[in-house]
Hints:
- The chain is mainly beta.
- It contains 1 helix and 3 strands, in the order βββα.
- It has one helix spanning 59-63; strands at 6-12, 17-25, 29-34.
- Strands 1-2-3 form a 3-stranded antiparallel sheet, with no helix packed on it.
Amino acid sequence: RAIEVTNELWISPDLRIIVRHLHDDPRTGTEATNVTDVIRGDPDPSLFQAPEGYDVVDHRAQNRQ
């Protein structure tokens, strides 16, 4: 009997990402990956702050000299 492997992708044209990926292989089983709880909008700026005690160094500025 032939081994039949399937991949199913659901893509959001608006978000331009894969929101569901289903991989079914009789040898390894079924794997599903889903994107959930999408919050549209700007992320919290504190997520992009360097932790206390770290220095931010812009190496691009050093290479221009």
